[in-house]
Design goal:
Strand 1 and strand 2 form a beta hairpin. Helix 1 packs antiparallel against helix 4 and helix 7 runs parallel beside helix 10 (218-233). Helices cover 54% and strands 9% of the residues. The chain is globular and about 65 Å long. The protein has a two-stranded antiparallel sheet. The chain starts with a helix and ends with a helix. By secondary structure, it is mainly alpha-helical. It has helices at 5-25, 35-49, 53-65, 84-107, 120-129, 169-180, 188-195, 205-209, 211-214, 218-233, and strands spanning 28-29, 32-33, 138-146, 152-160.
């Protein structure tokens, strides 16, 4: 399980290649976003780092069939618009990959470095799928509101579907990932990063008792920070 310096060098090189793919497509900017460019970036990044061709195909197919590119990321916070889930997820992926070289170069000097090893694929999958539970999770409704001229108009808004069965924010996303990529059942550190990406805000009292153990996993911290910086700094 020890991550070697050679593995770290490979991780850094591979994450930089994925960042270059994101920047080439330029699907998310301060001026807005382009869903088709986002889709193209996700597909090319997946092709560059996912080693199991069958699982890669199943993952991309799952995303298309479960409204990943049209669902919002929330009802009233970041990404509360059509396609917001794809925008947010790719932005979190970009943040995680961009930060990874410095993050893991520092972590590999720590005591816990002897317990884990990671690849660019692990970072990509954890970041991209951390909010899979939101795909197809919301329905579009309309409410009557007045415009600036005092005229009544129907304004669209999202709410949670009433027939949804969900086992918890992070845990549901883990289950949905495993539908298309069952090999990740053996990659517990990646599943931990997805499951615990919300930090303390999505835990039961029992889960909070051993939460500090999860912080020994650097991918948990990286995905948490990438999620926060994406929604906080960029509002995506």
């Amino acid at each position: 399980m020890i991550m070697t310096n050679e593995e770290l060098e490979t991780l850094i090189s591979d994450t930089q290649k994925l960042v270059a793919i994101f920047e080439k497509h330029n699907g998310i900017t301060n001026e807005g976003y382009d869903i088709e460019k986002i889709r193209a970036a996700v597909q090319e990044m997946a092709d560059a780092c996912i080693h199991n061709a069958d699982e890669q195909e199943d993952l991309l197919k799952w995303m298309e069939e479960h409204d990943f590119y049209t669902s919002p990321a929330s009802t009233k916070f970041h990404g509360n618009f059509k396609g917001g889930l794809a925008v947010h997820s790719l932005m979190v992926t970009y943040q995680a990959l961009k930060l990874a070289p410095a993050f893991f170069s520092d972590w590999i000097k720590s005591k816990t470095a002897s317990r884990f090893t990671f690849t660019a694929e692990d970072i990509f999958i954890a970041a991209l799928t951390h909010d899979f539970c939101k795909a197809g999770f919301y329905s579009l409704s309309y409410r009557n509101t007045k415009d600036v001229f005092g005229n009544w108009t129907k304004t669209p808004y999202y709410n949670v579907k009433t027939d949804i069965r969900n086992l918890g924010h992070g845990n549901e996303s883990v289950l949905l990932l495993l539908e298309s990529m069952p090999s990740f059942m053996k990659k517990r550190p990646v599943l931990e990063a997805i499951s615990r990406h919300m930090g303390f805000s999505d835990l039961t009292d029992t889960e909070k008792m051993n939460y500090s153990n999860f912080l020994e996993n650097p991918l948990v911290l990286l995905i948490q920070f990438a999620d926060q910086s994406s929604s906080g700094w960029y509002d995506y």
